[in-house]
Design goal:
With 512 residues, the protein is α/β, with parallel strands linked by helices. It has 19 helices and 13 strands. It has a single domain, classed as Peroxisomal Thiolase, Chain A, domain 1, CATH 3.40.47. This is Glycine/sarcosine/betaine reductase complex component C subunit beta.
Length: 512
């Protein structure tokens, strides 16, 4: 079988300012430990408007309205800059306002856990009717709505999680079980947000790439949330629940978890399934995490900045059999951080970058673009984490110098030539490698690049099961146009074939 291809992608953002205060872990833990803190008092004055979020340059890159390289046209910081002609909709997806996203929580709610106030429901229903992807069958799931008294009772007496819009109570998410902590209202809220944002990304994937939902065979969901009950915590299945909402009636699926590296793991799994002929069309999809909202908010407020982590992120990618057009996924050129790799920067970069390149007889400079941890430096620098993509590019370049593939003076400009400024929201798994897939596919189709490497990294120690770091990578490559007729052979495979032939020859001689 020939290599699988990336046939389409989508990227969505949801502006959720009220969820920062009520659902982001930085804020909710602050409420518990220091409810009268100066930070909590100042935070409401640092929230951005929906218009500001739409106009924000990195967000326009995320939905495909701008190319990553165009961020260089804006002086940092970017939060006080606006893109002329910015739009809610881009070629990859959209930036959805909070009211519509709250309505989407109800639309994807399969167990009648979400209660929304009647007037709010009436108003948002009219807004959703204007949305190009919201069919009547989806809008009908909003139903009539509830009285505010019912909602208050569910919160006060039955531990429901409140939903706010413009600082007003407009709904709640009920618990799914009286005793099961894995089905409490807070976790159900988190999971519904992940599902709803994943559904929106899936719908945009189908729409933007003219894909029939019925042609999807398998779905891999790769966010950082986990759904299940007390008997199988994290058992899933987000993937099938998202496929159901998108009417992918012929699809099955499963969830893949690996912290920030999960999307790249999922990309490799999808490519392998398609290449092996198990499935023709596999979608990897991920919704976002309410826990990450306002994660670095204290540092942003301290520096008199707006809270930039005010958006939920989501994406979807379609991996299909080779069509001779779209970029291929070189499953023979995989990087992997193994148990024995070690955690030093050089060991990590060697395992993820140079080891797979060596198998293909390639140099560091043979990769046109590296998509690493594409976190937005506007968010991370004020928090003391620096410019994460830039740091990655410097490490790759330094290894290139050590290998004799780069001159020392080229280190400073390596990121400009082989990298990009970061633009992805700090939603954990969202920035790690995959934000560039959509832009990369366009660059391949326009013959602007020949190779790109998608690199995912993860912090497994956060689960307190191991101190191990994690990471995987895969090379995307220009399609030679022969489709299913082509089977690429790497240098390593050639060596193995020669070795096998020599062994057979030696056996033949010994037999004589």
């Amino acid at each position: 079988m020939s290599y699988a291809v990336v046939k389409g992608s989508s990227y969505v953002l949801m502006h959720t300012p009220d969820m920062i205060m009520h659902n982001g872990t930085t804020q909710t833990t602050e409420k518990q430990s220091n409810p009268n803190s100066e930070y909590l008092q100042k935070l409401p004055n640092h929230l951005r408007s929906y218009e500001a979020v739409v106009n924000y340059p990195p967000n326009q890159v995320y939905i495909g309205k701008l190319k990553p390289e165009e961020l260089k046209n804006y002086d940092m910081p970017w939060y006080d800059k606006a893109v002329e002609g910015a739009d809610r909709y881009g070629k990859f997806g959209e930036i959805m306002p909070q009211a519509e996203f709250i309505a989407l929580l109800k639309i994807v709610d399969a167990f009648d856990l979400v209660m929304l106030e009647k007037n709010f429901t009436t108003k948002v229903r009219e807004e959703l009717k204007k949305h190009p992807l919201m069919k009547e069958s989806l809008i009908a799931k909003l139903k009539e709505g509830n009285d505010i008294e019912e909602i208050n009772k569910a919160i006060k007496e039955f531990h429901a999680e409140a939903i706010y819009h413009e600082d007003q109570l407009i709904g709640c998410v009920k618990r799914a079980h009286e005793l099961d902590t894995n089905l409490n209202a807070h976790i159900m809220y988190e999971n519904l947000v992940a599902k709803a944002s994943g559904v929106l990304a899936f719908l945009h994937l189908l729409d933007k790439n003219n894909i029939e939902a019925s042609t999807i065979d398998y779905v891999i969901e790769c966010s950082e949330e986990a759904c299940g009950d007390m008997n199988q915590r994290g058992g899933g299945n987000f993937a099938k629940s998202i496929a159901e909402m998108a009417e992918a009636v012929n699809a099955t699926g499963s969830d893949t978890r690996g912290f920030c590296a999960a999307p790249t793991h999922a990309l490799i799994e999808a490519a392998a399934l398609v290449k092996a002929g198990v499935f023709e069309n596999v979608v990897i999809v991920a919704g976002g995490a309410t826990a990450k909202l306002g994660m670095n908010g204290k540092d942003h407020v301290k520096k008199d900045m707006p809270i930039l982590e005010d958006i939920i992120g989501g994406f979807a990618v379609l991996v299909s059999k080779n069509d001779g057009i779209n970029p291929i996924l070189r499953t023979d050129l995989l990087g992997r951080h193994t148990v024995g790799t070690g955690s030093s920067p050089q060991a990590v970069i060697t395992s993820l970058i140079t080891a797979p390149l060596d198998r293909g007889g390639l140099k560091i400079t043979d990769i046109d673009k590296y998509s690493v941890e594409m976190q937005n430096p506007d968010v991370t620098k004020p928090a003391g984490a620096g410019d994460v993509p830039e740091a990655n590019y410097k490490m790759i370049a330094a290894l290139g110098v050590k290998r004799g593939e780069l001159d020392r003076k080229e280190v400073a400009t390596f990121g400009d030539k082989h990298g990009m400024p970061g633009w992805a929201p700090t939603q954990g798994h969202i920035p790690s490698g995959v934000p560039y897939i959509g832009h990369a596919r366009e660059a391949f189709l326009n013959k602007e690049i020949n190779r790109a490497m998608i690199v995912g990294k993860g912090s497994l120690f956060l689960g307190r099961m191991t101190n191990q770091f994690d990471g995987v990578s895969i090379v995307m490559e220009q399609n030679n146009g022969q489709g299913e007729a082509t089977v690429g052979v790497s240098e390593g495979e050639v060596k193995n074939m020669i070795a096998e032939a020599m062994r057979n020859f030696a056996t033949h001689l010994l037999g004589e």
